[in-house]
Write a structure and sequence with these properties.
With 126 residues, the protein is α+β, with helices and mostly antiparallel strands. It has one domain: Tetrahydropterin Synthase, Chain A, CATH 3.30.479. It is 21% helix and 34% strand. It is built from two helices and five strands; from the N terminus they run ββαβαββ. β4 and β5 form a beta hairpin. α1 crosses α2. It is elongated.
Length: 126
């Protein structure tokens, strides 16, 4: 098996909605995202998938969040609490949807919210 990792980052703020109904104070992070993709065989270019394609897809997902409050943006405005786990999940689901025509599969999304604080999302593979 072959695998690659691509890393990107963005600045954004969030305020978690607590189980008590309160909302923590809004605060910002410099989030770092690492995605790992794998394939049992290489493509015609002899890569798992082109690094530039993954960089472009990550850019499309992350750019709308740059310097924004995630609480005001979907899916965090209405569907998910903007936790690191849910942010990683949303990135992964969007990336997976964009990869359907490629042989590479998403293995994991790692989202670093702060030094030594990393949320990991792995897709279910049938």
């Amino acid at each position: 098996m072959f695998a690659i990792e691509v890393t990107s980052s963005f600045h954004a703020s969030h305020a978690l909605r607590l189980p008590t109904g309160n909302v923590e104070p809004s605060h910002a992070h410099h989030f770092h995202v690492t995605v790992k993709l794998a394939s049992n065989q290489l493509d015609a270019l002899e890569t798992v998938i082109d690094f530039h394609l993954i960089e472009q897809l990550l850019n499309e997902i992350l750019t709308p969040w740059q310097n924004k409050n995630l609480n005001t943006l979907d899916p965090f405005r209405t569907q998910y609490n903007p936790t690191a786990e849910r942010i990683a999940q949303h990135i992964g689901e969007r990336l997976q949807a964009a990869l359907t025509k490629y042989s590479a599969r998403l293995v994991e999304v790692r989202l670093t919210e702060a030094p030594q604080c990393i949320a990991i999302w792995t897709p279910d593979h049938d």
